Amino acid sequence: MNALKAIQLMNKYSKCKKCGNDKVGGDEGVLSVEDNIFIRSCKCGWEIEIDTDK
Ligand SMILES: [Zn+2]
User: Fold this and answer.
1) What is the rounded distance in angstroms from the CA atom of residue 33 to the CA atom of residue 21?
2) pTM for this prediction
């Protein structure tokens, strides 16, 4: 994934769409970029996974 795309996704999903939590790490949530997969999840159960190759 190119850096610009990664930053766009991080900005778009910086906050949980369900509860508004903007924290990641520990038990709060996950923000992960691996190859073409962007993953953002939250302790409330909200999760999104985006394959930027598609
Ligand atoms: Zn949440």
Assistant:
1) 19
2) 0.89
